Amino acid sequence: MKNSIVRYLAHRLMRREERKRARMENTFVHEQTAHGPIRISCTAWRTHNPINAWLVCGAQKALLLDTGLSVPGLAGYVRSLTGLPLMVVNSHGHFDHTGCNPQFDTVWIHPQDAPLLFQDLFGNALAAPGCEVKVLQGGDSIDLGGTVLDVYEVPGHTPGSIVLHNAADGYLLSGDAIARRIFYTPGRIWTPFSHYFDALERVRALDFTAIYSAHDDMALPKDLIDRLMQALETHLESCENVWAMPGVNDYYLIELNGGPENPAYINISVCKDRRNEAVADIRAWRAAHAQH
User: Fold this and answer.
1) Do the domain assignments include residue 260?
2) What is the span of the domain harbouring residue 142?
């Protein structure tokens, strides 16, 4: 009898701790940044590589960039922050940016990444996205009423990765396309580095001082773009640090300036099988641009 009571109490305690963890996992938080956009995160998203969604409010509409991993309550939390008509945009089609899409009626994404809402990186079918899917692309402008976000294509992390530029307030919402950690072209579709560098050059010419990415809690400086390009040009060919992903691919991992606690930290992964092609492409790009 005594052992039964002990087991029962232990079970009750375990269940209570499970419920407590579940509540914690669904606890959302937000922070107003100096440039205006609101960073939204969740304790379930606070892994070794934190995940952020971004809310921008204009006078007439609001925009949510990315919906993180699938957890209950994001739509309700966003509604607690704004009652404005809401446009939901995915910076790209990966699961850690689209997980809560079904909580919204309509989601916008670049057409080249729309297939990722229906299949994973390796072509395996996924459940229907649970919302209407519409497309936007580079050259589009989103007017929220006094606040305008311009769409720029930055293919590399995925073929349809986009960033949003707010010229008036001087910031960039960059998803995974421009960040301290760049996982270059995971999956089946390779994007030549010349395309990525061309896109980075276009974005670098814009007027902004801060970059807000999906996986950094701090505002990143504009010169991050130069440092990413320089890291690839300088270190990719000689890199010996290999990051193995069992059952997928091996990646060369360029890691500079200590760890994530250092604001200058850089972490770039490039498929091992593509290194020679990537190095040749970057050299050709640099040679072509040196002539201008």
Assistant:
1) no
2) 25-222
Question: Which residues are CB-contacts of 280 (< 8 A; sequence separation ≥ 6)?
Answer: none
Produce one character per residue of 78-109: b if its CB has 16 or more CB atoms within 10 Å, e if not.
beebbebebbbbbbbbbebbbbbbbbbeebbb
Alpha-helical runs (H) found in 121-218: 193-204
Query: Is residue 259 a part of any domain in this protein?
Result: no
CATH label of the domain that carries residue 66:
3.60.15.10
- H or E segment to which residue 252 belongs: strand 250-256
* Burial label, 272 (beta-carbon count in 10 A; 0-12, 13-18, 19+): middle
For 55-60, what is the mean pLDDT?
A: 98
Mean pLDDT confidence for 94-115:
95
Is the distance from CB of 101 to CB of 107 less than 8 angstroms?
yes
pLDDT higher than threshold 90 for residue 4: no
Per-residue pLDDT tens digits for 213-239: 999 999 999 999 999 999 999 999 999
Burial 204-227 (b: 16+ CB within 10 A, else e): eeeebebbbbbbbeebbebebbeb
Domain assignment present for 68: yes
> 108 lies in a domain?
yes
For the chain, helix, strand, coil in percent to 5 are 30, 25, 45
The pLDDT tens digits of the residues spanning 160-194 come to 999 999 999 999 999 999 999 999 987 678 999 99
Tokens of 210: 């801060």
> Helix (H, G, I), strand (E, B), or coil: what is residue 14?
helix
Residue 229 and residue 283 in contact, taking contact as beta carbons nearer than 8 Å: no
